[in-house]
Amino acid sequence: MSDQVNRLVAAGRALRSAAPHLLPGALSQVLRTRYAAEAVELRLADYGLTVLLPVPPAPSGTESAPVQGSAPGRAFGSQQPYVEEPADGRVRAHLPVTVRGDRLGVLSLTLPARSRESLAELTELAELLGHELVVAQRDTDLYARARRRERLTLAAEMQWQLLPARSCAREEYALGAQLEPAYAIFGDNFDWEASTDHLLVYVTNGMGEGIEASLLTSLGINALRNARRAGIPIEEQAALADQALYAHYRGEAHLSVLLVDIELSTGRMRVVDAGSPQLLLLRDRVLSLVDLDAQLPLGMFEETDYVPQELTLLPGDRLLFVSDGVHGVAAPGGESYGEHALARALGNASLLPAADVPAVVLRGLTRHRGRSEPDDDALVVCLDWFGKRPAS
Q1: Within 13 A of 231's CA, how many CA atoms are on the CB side?
Q2: Nearest partner of 49 among 33, 65, 61, 35, judged by Cα
Q3: Which tens digits make up the pLDDT trace of 292-350?
Q4: Alpha carbons 24 and 58: distance in angstroms, whole number
């Protein structure tokens, strides 16, 4: 067995055997003893995806790093190792910590110059760390606390617990999503699920504010998941969730939702539009609003029937899902942040991966809004469709 394999096996064993809250310390020990690392710093992306925050207990002197304009931020954004070579002859390596396309943070190492030869091995170790972090955070709040620039509202706490990863990728597609205000959201939500043959994406907007909106969305999302896990089509998922919401609220509260089911082998897409979220398609550099048959939001009336529409995606298509807190926001002069403004934002993000697009759109929304404070959640989900590659 090679030295490289020996080191990776030992590192994996050390991480798996460490208590969940002691992963950073176990990692530092492995890197110092087996790779001669002089400094080890782990940073995780905050809820707003604007800064990389050190994981406590952090080494002395470790500071937060902005996602835009810092060396760790370059590794986070590009999802490639970024190496600095200071004049002192050492190497400063920043490695993305990512799990199946979900970008968690960055591992930064100060190493002897000769360790540059181990960069590929260390990159693999950073990925291994990511998998262990996902498992560890089930048993400790350390990593959830480390991601916070400020305290979450209770409604936001409930919403983030409902959410899947903020990005994911497979051969056929790449997904990215973001919610604002990240620390005070209440009713908007996204969800997705992938199987061998299908990708399902849900974008929801619960009416109301604060805890009531969060409770409504929680009931709706769990009703949809319960129906989805029974293996039934999206129109029946919508009908069952509609019944669950009506049974509880008797029509006094409702949930807007856009449900999408994509067949991975063909790009065939079935859509149920039950409310305010909009779907836009960027194809051949032309952005258009997908014309969908508007149906009733979930929970308005008893036993509503839902009918899906069918479309087909082509390789190279980019889909953008936006809540009414995006497309309905008015500028100080009254102009809505509609297709023209979204087209500009997507043009600015044309070369970026799906995971980075929501942040670009939301920054454009902030400029469009001006100095006025947001009065609604803003949700953006981007889906890049690559299609099924022919078997070789």
Answers
A1: 1
A2: 65
A3: 999 999 999 998 999 999 999 999 999 999 998 888 887 777 777 877 788 888 888 99
A4: 8
Q: Can you give the pTM of this predicted structure?
A: 0.92
Radius of gyration, alpha carbons of the chain: 22
pLDDT greater than 60 at residue 60: no
Can you say how many angstroms the Cα of residue 55 is from the centroid of all Cα atoms in its chain? 20
Give the per-residue pLDDT at 213.
93
- The whole-angstrom separation of Cα 294 and Cα 367 is 30
Q: Which long-range contacts (CB under 8 A, 24 or more apart) does 140-144 make?
A: 140/20, 140/21, 142/20, 142/21, 142/55, 142/56, 143/44, 143/55
Assess whether pLDDT exceeds 60 at residue 58: no
Please give the helix or strand (H or E) that residue 383 lies within, else none.
Answer: strand 378-385
DSSP code, position 230: T
- Token pair of 306, please? 């839902």
Question: Phi-psi region for residue 136, left (φ > 0), alpha (ψ -120 to 50) or beta?
Answer: alpha
Residue with tokens 């919610």: 179
Q: Which helix (H) or strand (E) holds 365?
A: helix 357-369
370 has pLDDT over 80 = no
**Residue written as tokens 């999503």?**
177
Distance separating alpha carbons of residues 346 and 365, to the nearest angstrom: 12
DSSP lists the bridge partners of residue 84 as 92
- Over the stretch 64-120, which tens digit does the pLDDT of each residue have? 999 999 999 999 999 999 999 887 778 999 999 999 999 999 999 999 987 777 888
What is the per-residue DSSP string for 277-344?
-EEEEEETTEEEE------PPBTSSTT-----EEEE--TT-EEEEE-HHHHTPBPTTS-BS-HHHHHH
CB 97 within 8 A of CB 129: yes
Q: Where are the beta strands (DSSP E) in the chain?
A: 39-45, 51-54, 65-66, 82-84, 90-99, 102-112, 167-169, 173-180, 188-194, 198-206, 255-263, 268-274, 278-283, 286-289, 309-312, 318-322, 378-385
